[in-house]
Amino acid sequence: MKKRIAILPGDGIGPEVCEAATTVLNEIGTMFQHQFEFVYGDLGGIAIDKTGNPLPKETLTICKNSDAVLLGAVGGPKWDTLPGEQRPEKGLLGLRKELGLFANLRPVTIYDALADSSPLKDEVIQGVDLVIVRELTGGLYFGEPRERRGEGKEELAVDTLVYSRKEIERIVRKGFEFAEIRGGTLTSVDKANVLESSRLWREVVDEVAKEYPNISYSHMLVDNAAMQLVRNPRQFDVIVTENMFGDILSDEASMITGSLGMLPSASLSEDGPGLFEPIHGSAPDIAGKGIANPLATLSSVAMMLTYAFSMTEEADVLSAAINDVLEAGHRTADLTSDERAVLSTTEMTNQVIQALTKKAVNS
After folding, report:
1. Which of 190, 201, 257, 362 is deepest in the core (most CB within 10 A)?
2. Burial class of 121 by CB neighbour count within 10 A (0 to 12, 13 to 18, 19+)
């Protein structure tokens, strides 16, 4: 059966890494006899330029009528002076809300071939394999009231942190489910010593934990979690936390690997299409130069194959091909200081396809 994928290239390097993704998906389709249909939509800055809206209705319709959504990146300095409600990032936040994408998964895994790229010592990062499960549709980013008022020295800004018990239960249960699948432990991160919302969060975690008696869990304050991710990241297996804390901690955790260009993410709803995207930004300084690292996007494709289509074998083969390419010493500019060894986006994509082909021949 044909799988319909909404492709939202977005801004900056987004179109380049999305092109890499569709090329690889077509190769996987040929290898495993699948049919993928790509339907394109505009999101973010490019959508503002075309329609004045960072999330056009046409794009939202395309996404809702698809089996999965692949996003490149949004934003850039061109749109930084726009009011908050009109900026590219508002389109992404709106898409998450409209699709009910409440659970963001960000795996952090060390590739042995890239261990030297990490700012942390080898003995600290060896064996790191964790997942951050971040609540995505509530908290400070969506709470009301949200306003600025007054003038001059009397001007003030208000953002409101709001969570309902239902929202917390939903994401916490997802965290326990992943801990159960992985056969690991759960760390719930909050700020219960200061925030009322975190005190509710902690209460809900303790209640939901009773449904998973075989899962060992603990609570950790967010400032301590930030420190522990650098000090001893191996202690973590699944981390579940609210929206803003998850945003910050997942970016911090990404640097354990040494490059934002390597990490994927998946945002899942209860029953609709999921959104899959690399966690790096739009990198406008290198856009159009053909040197962007496509591997985070290709890893996001692997997550799509797993979570959207239940194609676990295909996902495993793609992930193994990415690892083989890195083990063979292939690098994009963000992964090496040796300019002579740098591959372009297209060249790196072709290396992954060659690795896929070898696995098909040997299987």
Report:
1. 201
2. exposed
CA distance 207 to 168: 11
Neighbours of 320 (CB within 10 A): 14
Residue pLDDT tens, the chain, 363 long:
899 999 999 999 999 999 999 999 999 999 999 999 999 999 999 999 999 999 999 999 999 999 999 999 999 999 998 887 889 999 998 999 899 999 999 999 888 888 887 888 888 888 899 999 999 999 999 899 999 999 999 999 999 999 999 999 999 999 999 999 999 999 999 999 999 999 999 999 999 999 999 999 999 999 999 999 999 999 999 999 999 999 999 889 888 877 666 889 999 999 899 999 998 889 999 999 999 999 999 999 999 999 999 999 999 999 999 999 999 999 999 888 888 889 999 999 999 999 999 876 665
Alpha carbon distances (Å) from 328 to 318, 324, 341: 15, 6, 12
| Domains 1-109+264-363 and 119-256 agree in fold | yes
Task: Provide the annotated active-site residues.
Answer: 141, 191, 223, 247, 251
Distance CA 363, CA 32 (A): 12
- The residue to which tokens 């993928």 are assigned: 36
Pull the structure tokens for residue 297.
């996007």
pTM above 0.85, yes or no: yes
- Mutual orientation of helices 312-327 and 345-362 as an angle, nearest 10°? 120
**Residue 235 token pair:** 């202690």
Domain segments of the chain: what residues? 1-109+264-363, 119-256
In sign, the C-alpha dihedral spanning 110, 115, 117, 120 is positive
Q: What single DSSP character describes residue 82?
A: S
Q: Which fold has domain 1-109+264-363?
A: Isopropylmalate Dehydrogenase (3.40.718)
292 annotated binding-site participant: yes
CA atoms of 293 and 295, how far apart (whole Å): 6
Number of Cβ within a 10 Å radius of residue 64: 13
Annotated binding residue 223: yes
What is the second-level CATH architecture of the domain 119-256? 3-Layer(aba) Sandwich (3.40)
